Amino acid sequence: TTIYLKDYTPFGYVVDSVHLTFDLEPHSTRVTSRIAFAPNTETTDRSFFLHGEQLKLISAKIDGIAISPTVTEQGLSCDVPNAPFTWETVVEIDPANNTALEGLYMSNGMYCTQCEAEGFRKITFYPDRPDVMAVFTVRINGPHPVLLSNGNPVDAGPHWAEWHDPWPKPAYLFALVAGELLAHSSTFTTVSGKHVDLNLYVRPGDEGKCAFGMEALKKSMIWDEQVYGREYDLDVFNIVAVDDFNMGAMENKGLNVFNSSCVLASPETSTDDNFERIEAIIAHEYFHNWTGNRITCRDWFQLCLKEGLTVFRDSQFTSDLRSAPVKRIRDVIDLRGRQFAEDNGPLSHPVRPESFQEINNFYTATVYEKGAEVIGMLKRLVGDAAYCEAVDLYFARHDGQACTIEDWLKVFEDTTGRDLTQFKRWYSQAGTPRVNVTEDWTDGTYTLTFTQSTPATPGQPHKDPRVIPIAVGLLGSNGDEVRKTEMLELTEASQSFSFDGLSSRPTPSILREFSAPVILERDSTNAERAFLLAHDTDPFNRWEAGNALAKDARLNMIIKGAAPDADYLDALQKLVRDDDLDPGFRALVLQPPSASDLAQTLFENEHAPDPQAIYDASETMAQTLAQTLADSLPRLYAATTVEGPYQPDAVGASNRMLNFRMLALLSRLDGGDQAAQQFASADNMTLQYAALVCLLSIDKGAEQNQAFFYQWKDDRLVMDKWFAAQVAFATPEKTAAIAATLTQHPLFDMKNPNRFRAVMGALAMNHAGFHHISGDAYSLLADWLIKLDPLNPQTTARMCSAFQTWKRYDADRQALIKIQLDRIAATPDLSRDTTEMITRIREA
Ligand code: ARG
Ligand code: ZN
């Protein structure tokens, strides 16, 4: 069944309070609920339906009198009084057999929950919808030393604990954790002097991986006070690390639950990228306390209301704490890699979808990352001061409510007087706009003409023009900026903007800071790109010029059989040696464009991408680049070697980024000698892992790979890296076989999403390996998706997106993939999650 946004109606009852009692038992946990319902005066529909799935109903009462409701697979209905009443049920559930990791489940002997989006209905009968907000009191009875739920602790004794959350919340923010856990504790005093206890709970053995996460939490708390004026609102803030988790982390009120890979960190076991990601995710979940929890979503179509805004906030946070240009460039690389692929394929959907079958399939790059881009555009259009004013009004006006995108846009309209009707198309229209630019230079007037269009997407054949903020600056022939950045507002299908008073024809720098998530189409020359790479004052566009050169050079090799472009090599040579430039920025210019990005561009230009040809061109380019830069490599490798004990700080990380690029190129010249040396002497994971990756990438490193295994076999998170690296960096013809062998390894565990993704996610990400013409990788992935689906539909469905780009490729590959899609679709009892994904992908 398909659910539609247009069908929204409020629930017929409000919930005044919820009392829950849990009697924990691995296979037979009892959940007793006492819920105070009252008729909802906002509506007249009085039908009473409570969601409930996989629950064994033991008893039900209304105002103390036993009743026999009608129970189906989806929930329960019955006649209720047309006045306030008390609802009581006892149900039994089986957390130990809950492999879907949704609702209450067990992970390594500890109990934990994941309720977003619709998991609470697997815990008890309830109106499991985000617009029903209630105050929860929870009692947990269990033998475990740590018993946690939302809100503030009320009281506890041996084998029990009681929690009360004073803030009304939807059921998806409910959480419970019980187990033998250790706390890494600290405190925080809010700006108004309120004392907060902070705890990061982990399994014994992980105590040494908590310090960084705790510091990140405190930085997030201070940042939200200073930048958004948001203070924390409970006496405690608890975070729990869980090994078995479908997603990254969850913002449950006062009790965030994290995939252990997204919170545990130590220099020996985590890379610089891990540290940065952990800091961002801790911030993200913390920021949800206001954007998500205090103000939540009316229904799941509004998911981007909390996710787009919270991603935007966490990216601002990272920009403030680290290098803003590096963060922006990395976000755009990620957006193009994941969101553009989604937006331009069969899974394309608007930032605010209008229908779904399974909401878990809409926790996507479009809702999250494009949703954040839309907020960034809004801020660019209204300006920083107006943005702050509007957001303040949002908090003031909607605190305690379940809201919509309309509510969000209204605060901007009310504070700025702008009409955002056209802007709203960013929420309703799917697909990535193409913006074509032409230019004219006549009598001292320079004119840019922009033409926008968006290709049809599933269910949306026609697209209307959007409001597109295009940041433009102009450079003079000596590289000086003759016009500072101006925010042009493209609103028509085609529109021109003129600049006069210029003494000579300028070089334009268009879409600075990537001011809108569009594909810019413009004829440019290598000379112009090299000029921008050398002179642009906007760091994003400076990188973008290098990226365009890098892509073009490879595309010419692939399409025309050209040799590696001399101008490109020359430009890189100059850039790499420019020690005035941030090493992290230089590393990003040296980072090769991804194979998948090249494939997408080839497809857009009407060439069926050949993954092997892309791989070969990239290898040749790397080899040539190494030879061209040969003289600089040892010096820069040494110069970017960070002295002293490892610190996960931004400056060190930036140096190590460039250091890694140098090592990767050196490995092409010395057969991996330097990498082997680095591997042997590394005292931190960043350097150790970088060395392993460099070796695997040149089809070496068997010895180091084995050493790595023996050193780290007892550390689950490092083992995930070990599994992933061997597949991700394998040569194309070996990829599927290596992945297949690893699935037989004693430490491979399909029930653990991190481990499953380490192998299968890496398989899908090794572009030439996944698309090897043997078709082995396609069938291997399909085999495992079919095996995992009955156990864990969410993770299975998510990984189906590996096939979303299938229409890009040649007829032979399409046929090979089609066989696997058909095979998955024909599997008996396929989950709703996977059925929806495969159906959408096949219908392309
Ligand atoms: N709200 C969480 C976050 O953005 C994501 C939880 C998604 N979980 C799910 N099963 N769909 O941090
Ligand atoms: Zn989120």
Question: What is the structure about, briefly put?
Answer:
Its cofactor is Zn(2+). The chain is of the alpha+beta class and 844 residues long. It is 41% helix and 21% strand.
General description of the model:
Belongs to the peptidase M1 family. Its EC number is 3.4.11.2. Keywords: Aminopeptidase, Hydrolase, Metal-binding, Metalloprotease, Protease, Zinc. The longest helix has 22 residues. This protein is α+β, with helices and mostly antiparallel strands and 844 residues long. The relative contact order is 0.06. The two termini are 20 Å apart. It is 41% helix and 21% strand. The site of zinc ion has 4 residues, from helix 3.
Main sheet overview: 8 strands, mixed
- Strand order, main sheet: write it out: 6-5-9-3-2-12-15-14
Contiguous low-pLDDT stretches (5 residues minimum) are: none
* Mean of all residue-level pLDDT scores: 98
Count of helical regions: 27
| SS class | alpha+beta
Backbone shape: globular
Proportion of strand residues: 15-25%
Q: Give every kind of bound small molecule, once each.
A: arginine, zinc ion
Rg, nearest Å: 27 Å
